[in-house]
């Protein structure tokens, strides 16, 4: 029996209910704004969402508050505010009241406090709900729906191979980022690229409905597998742009499998799903970063895919690690929305590495000389969002 449709909405993310059989969806939303990769979860018969790149962060986490103590502009604004207040009360009609308020403000200025004391960061805790996680060898099967160039496909395949590569690339590396998933009970999760299907003739058309996703994923359903559906830039999917991707589970016979969907937002909504490589459609209008692989749409997909892979292995069946309601959880990476480097805050992804020859921003090295930008992941040992740089 399917659960009732969730009524909750958060920021620019909506929750949907699908009338498909035992299917769990974990959409990855990036509401159009800036670095706030808001990932929400949506529920069908049992389902979840994942946040967007562009929505405000939902909960305090490592680097999730504005870096007030390290932000000269904010300090200046506060100082100017105090001077304005002092000037205003000094000019007030009542001389005695002016002196009183003046002395009060002067006393406040003398108190040795910092902004960090006013806005104290609270630990972020994702509760373990005693369900199975995906551990050991995990085969990642790829379903390419629509037209992708060989270069685009190689960027994504190299990324997946980079997560569990036996060859140690330069530090910081994508494999080191992925090792954080080992801290979630029961050991490591080793990803191996399995079969690939090219559906360049759009067998279900160029507009996919939500029930099409588990149907496509069913081509590779099996224990210890994750089916990844990648839709091309000219393919519309229900709810796309409000969400940039989804992860869920479905059952075929006695086998319960997991799947991921990620869409290429290059022409449909790059301001929502390709930030920080594209100008956000709302929020702080900072200049976009240069994409490390020279493809705004594909590099945006990498961020979404990284988020969904981590969320899938740590919460595959809606009873793993998450915080909040089961039908709208914050998961391993979706709990750390918009954080890519130290010192991040809404509108600013944080301090990153820059490739001198291209000016591209990145924080992870991969196989075959690849470079990627990966979001922060929640670390169970420190209860904080962990960045590579």
TrEMBL record:
GO terms for cellular component: apoplast. Keywords: Apoplast, Membrane, Secreted, Signal, Transmembrane, Transmembrane helix. This is Protein EXORDIUM-like 2. It comes from Gossypium mustelinum (Cotton). Belongs to the EXORDIUM family. The keyword Membrane applies. Its main location: secreted. It is found in: Secreted, Extracellular space, Apoplast. InterPro entries: EXORDIUM-like (IPR006766). The chain crosses the membrane at residues 77-93.
